[in-house]
Amino acid sequence: MRPTPENIRVFYFATNCAEPYVQIITVKDSNRRQSVCSSEWSEVGETEEDLLPVLCDHSHLLDDQHLERLAAHMPARTQGYPWQLAYSTVVHGTSLKTLYRNMAGLDNPVLLVIKDMHNKVFGGFSTEPFKVSDSCYGTGETFLYSFSPDFKAYRWSGENSYFVRGHLESLQIGGGAGGFGLWLDADLYRGASYSCPTFHNQPLSTQQDFIVQDLEVWTLQN
């Protein structure tokens, strides 16, 4: 039986997340997903709304389960855009200055992903790229999250606007009452996570003071 207009859908994909091409597939075949740009299609029986984000680079920290939970909590305006790796300790070394340098010129939201020495994965979403600033920046869409042990997102409480602040010697997300929701040192080696009024979060790691094993920052291109 020839496909009819009712059971044909047109999808736009990109082999390098820059140059699109068109592929026409049937509704039956559309119940598939692509987790990275170079991955093969696999049957999973999901709808278009359940497609995982497209990663333009390999992640050492995020698997499909992480991606699925995180994507569901991203602002609606970021849905459907590819994720580009802007910084990775595996690729770029351990330097907050390098992280800031890689963020220069960007104007997109970013996702910070951390794995500590206890293999706990957590981080934060910022509506602006990380940068050095004399004051806090970001909006109420900023949030913290943790997969320790189950996924939980901590959204803006409305109590203050201490979203993100970057110093040459540290990066801070959330604050007030003498504690930071997430704090990293200049070497991206030591970190801390405390409950803070900005997000009313629990500490993201098993221990309030932690050692970073690996760290990634993804930018959501639009």
Automatic annotation (TrEMBL):
The keyword Cell membrane does not apply. Residues 60-221 form the TLDc domain. The keyword Hydrolase does not apply. It comes from the Eukaryota. GO terms for cellular component: nucleus. Keywords: Receptor. GO terms for biological process: regulation of transcription by RNA polymerase II; response to oxidative stress. PANTHER family: NUCLEAR RECEPTOR COACTIVATOR 7, NUCLEOLAR PROTEIN 7/ESTROGEN RECEPTOR COACTIVATOR-RELATED. This is Nuclear receptor coactivator 7. It comes from Merluccius polli (Benguela hake).
